[in-house]
């Protein structure tokens, strides 16, 4: 006979947080949103943490290289979408890793025989205005000079002018020897009023660059998430079909963490994928898995070697899995159930496996609710798809700007691997829709508002950290009438669309 749950499954919208005691120290500026991303043993430090509890969904309409860069600047992680060729996904990861570093490998290089036309073409292709001139045209060749935008005037020079005639030659350059620390390099940049400082080996070969703009960027983004080499942290999705080829390519490209992108994670296919990763890489490659909606599914993936577990089936705004298959569970109930099992697993094994609430986030406060219920971080699709950094087009519809947003289970994405059950290599039916979402501008502005709300709510609960919120939170179910009462009602709202109104 089928098993019946005695309680209905509930969504985040059915809960509210009850305020707790707030001390004088409990102010938003004192709140830390640092959270673990991958598993660790009791008494040890987590090898990968985030400064904010938000990651972007593994979706074509959400997580490209610009989202990877933008979200890392804000302290989170973007998971570059998997429904593309291995080569193109690895290149996206590589671009994020190379975009910002204390020591940047040069990817804009010239030969002495190149011309101004080559300089302009390279600038158009890479977006970089500082270019190294080396003997072999590579980023590790013998450094002969530099070309910067101040070295040429397009309007007054012939496109065929050789680089050698207008570059700054090596003997006129200010550079630092290999082994110079990042602090020392930045001091040279500021003392000598430079925009870029080449790092050069003993035999004169270019090693890397240090840029003034990277220092400024760091000061303007205090929460930015960097690896041990001062490069942006980025994740990438994988599937249960081509992992043997995709994982090595992503690891080589520099991906910090992987996740199996699947609509349903309680399967042998995910166990096989994790086993393959552990057999070849041990614990050096971090890989999450999912999605599941109960404690049983969590324990299966934790035992299989998952570094974190994603929770949620059918709760996404463009997901129609529940409608088409009758599979899923209310996201709040799923998070509560899995969190309880995560804690039991930790007590039994001494291994803490973080959990990620994937889907069901409609309002900003739902993130805080998910954290209070036990989630370590949240994965969001619709939320991030609205910003400039998402890879989709901005379209004017009915006088308002919108961004395209489609599900991985839609006919447009055709990401059949995400719904793979071992059958034919095609999408049998749709589990997602193609849609539009209201354009929301820059990621940094949107996240600043969201994070401000989270910090403020945590202070209302008397909590300054996510573990403290989980411990102190008091949650109450609300009635349908209470939900209506919680919004503006019984008033005629003014038009606040002007400069002083809502964004």
CATH superfamily of the largest domain: Aldolase class I
Tell me the major beta sheet.
Answer: 8 strands, parallel, barrel
Structural classification:
alpha/beta
Could you tell me the mean pLDDT?
A: 89
CATH class of the largest domain: Alpha Beta
Number of domains: 2
Q: Which residues form runs of ≥5 with pLDDT under 50?
A: 498-503
Based on the coordinates given, report the CATH architecture of the largest domain: Alpha-Beta Barrel
Question: Could you tell me how far the N terminus lies from the C terminus, measured between alpha carbons in angstroms?
Answer: 53 Å
β-strand amount? 15-25%
Q: Numbering strands along the chain, what is their spatial order in the largest sheet? A: 5-6-14-15-16-17-19-20
Number of beta strands: 24
- Tally of contiguous helical segments: 16
CATH topology of the largest domain: TIM Barrel
Shape: globular
Cα-based radius of gyration, to the nearest Å: 25 Å
Proportion of residues in helical segments: 25-40%
Structure notes:
Helix content is 32%, strand content 18%. It is α/β, with parallel strands linked by helices. Strands 5-6-14-15-16-17-19-20 form an eight-stranded parallel beta barrel, surrounded by seven helices. A four-stranded mixed sheet has the order 7-8-9-10. The protein is built from 16 helices and 24 strands. It folds into two domains: 12-44 and 52-100 and 226-393 and 442-485, Aldolase class I (TIM Barrel); 109-216, CBS-domain (Roll), CATH 3.10.580. It is globular and about 80 Å long.
């Amino acid at each position: 006979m089928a098993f019946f749950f005695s309680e209905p499954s509930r969504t985040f919208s059915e809960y509210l947080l009850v305020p707790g005691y707030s001390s004088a120290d409990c102010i938003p500026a004192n709140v830390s949103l640092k959270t673990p991303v991958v598993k660790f043993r009791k008494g040890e430090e987590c090898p990968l943490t985030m400064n904010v509890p938000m990651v972007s969904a593994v979706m074509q309409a959400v997580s490209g290289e610009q989202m990877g860069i933008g979200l890392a600047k804000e302290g989170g992680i973007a998971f570059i979408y998997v429904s593309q060729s291995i080569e193109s996904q690895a290149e996206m990861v590589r671009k994020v890793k190379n975009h910002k570093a204390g020591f940047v490998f040069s990817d804009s290089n010239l030969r002495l025989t190149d011309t101004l036309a080559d300089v302009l073409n390279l600038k158009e292709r890479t977006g970089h205005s500082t270019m190294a001139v080396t003997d072999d045209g590579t980023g590790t060749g013998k450094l002969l000079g530099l070309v910067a935008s101040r070295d040429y005037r397009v309007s007054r020079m012939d496109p065929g002018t050789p680089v050698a005639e207008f570059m700054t030659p090596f003997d006129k350059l200010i550079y630092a020897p290999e082994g110079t620390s990042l602090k020392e390099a930045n001091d040279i940049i500021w003392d000598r009023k430079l925009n870029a400082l080449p790092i050069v080996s003993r035999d004169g070969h270019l090693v890397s660059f240090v840029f003034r703009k990277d220092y400024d960027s760091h000061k303007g983004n205090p929460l930015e998430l960097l690896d041990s080499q001062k490069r942006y942290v980025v994740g990438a999705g994988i599937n249960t079909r081509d992992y043997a080829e995709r994982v090595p390519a992503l690891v080589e490209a520099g991906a910090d963490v992987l996740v199996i992108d699947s609509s349903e994670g309680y399967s042998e296919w995910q166990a096989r994928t994790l086993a393959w990763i552990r057999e070849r890489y041990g614990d050096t490659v971090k890989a999450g898995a999912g999605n599941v909606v109960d404690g049983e599914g969590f324990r299966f993936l934790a035992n299989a070697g998952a570094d974190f577990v994603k929770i949620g089936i059918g709760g996404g705004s463009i997901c129609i899995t529940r409608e088409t298959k009758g599979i899923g569970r209310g996201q709040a109930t799923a998070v509560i159930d899995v969190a309880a099992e995560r804690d039991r697993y930790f007590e039994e094994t001494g291994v803490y496996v973080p959990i990620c609430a994937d889907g069901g986030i409609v309002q900003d406060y739902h993130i805080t609710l998910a954290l209070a219920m036990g989630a370590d971080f949240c994965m969001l699709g619709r939320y991030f798809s609205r910003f400039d950094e998402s890879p989709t087009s901005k379209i004017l519809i009915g006088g308002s700007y919108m961004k395209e947003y489609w599900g991985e289970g839609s006919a447009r994405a055709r990401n059949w691997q995400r719904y793979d059950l071992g059958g034919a290599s095609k999408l049998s039916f749709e589990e997602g829709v193609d849609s539009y979402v209201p354009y929301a501008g820059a990621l940094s502005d949107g996240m600043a508002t969201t994070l401000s709300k989270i910090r403020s709510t945590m202070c209302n609960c008397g909590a300054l950290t996510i573990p403290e919120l989980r411990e102190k939170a008091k949650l109450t179910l609300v009635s349908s009438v209470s939900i209506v009462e919680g919004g503006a009602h019984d008033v005629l709202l003014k038009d606040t669309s002007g400069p002083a109104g809502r964004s």
